[in-house]
Amino acid sequence: MATADVDVAVPDQVLVFTLGEDRFCVAIDAIDEIVTAGEVSPVPDTPRMVEGVMNLRGETTTIVDPKVVYGLAQTDADRRVIIYDGDGDGKVGWLVDDVHQVGELRDPEVDPAPDSEYVEGIVKQDGEFTLWVEPARVNGRLGE
Predict the structure, then answer these.
(1) How confident is the model at residue 112 (pLDDT cuts 50, 70, 90)?
(2) Is residue 2 part of a domain?
(3) Are the C-beta atoms of residues 80 and 67 closer than 8 Å to each other?
(4) For the segment 50-102, what is each residue's pLDDT rounded down to a tens digit?
(5) Which residues of 92-106 are buried (b: 16+ CB within 10 A; e: fewer)?
(6) How many other CB atoms are there within 10 angstroms of residue 135's CB atom?
(7) Burial class (CB in 10 A: 0-12, 13-18, 19+), 109
(8) Which of the four, 20, 48, 95, 135, has the lowest number of CB atoms within 10 Å?
(9) How many domains does the chain have?
(10) Nearest to residue 69, comparing CAs of 46, 85, 50?
(11) Residue 3 falls within a domain, yes or no?
């Protein structure tokens, strides 16, 4: 596995999802579950990336819009929520346009992201580019 100066270990399995036309992936072990987006209640005076909160089986879950984080255009797509464990701060969900697949990174070429705080690397596999992200980097900014 070539990692070309990427600081963290390249995951063996990832979940691929899209935001608009852009493909992203996260390590599968970072994910608790995937649910259909329910009603999200806005919360005033939160960071722009926080869409609000959602009731997930009785647990208040912070919902983040990664399109705001990555500077992408909003779409009218039906959205799914990828739920992450918030490292003791409760669960955090990301609104995504589509969830595609769980896949293995078979001897990928991973290049470092060009000066990006929120992208771990660029995965080049099967003729496509996928942005590899680490949710903890984004979710860690919620308290700021």
Answers:
(1) confident
(2) no
(3) no
(4) 999 999 999 999 999 999 989 999 887 778 888 887 666 788 999 999 999 89
(5) bbbbbbeeeeebebe
(6) 21
(7) middle
(8) 48
(9) 1
(10) 50
(11) no
How far is Cα of residue 91 from the mean position of the Cα atoms in its chain? 13
Range of the domain at 33: 13-139
H helix or E strand, kind and range, residue 66 = helix 66-69
Using only the alpha carbons of the chain, give its radius of gyration. 15
pTM (predicted TM-score) = 0.84
Distance CA 72, CA 96 (A): 12
Residue 5 forms part of a structural domain = no
Q: Dump the DSSP string for 67-128.
A: HHHTTPPP-----EEEEEE-TTS-EEEEEESEEEEEEE--S-EEEE-SS-SS--EEEEETTE
Residue 38 neighbours by CB distance under 10 Å: 13
CATH number at residue 49: 2.40.50.180
Residue with tokens 């995937």: 34
Overall size of the chain counted in residues = 144
Distance from C-alpha of 136 to C-alpha of 115, rounded to nearest angstrom: 18
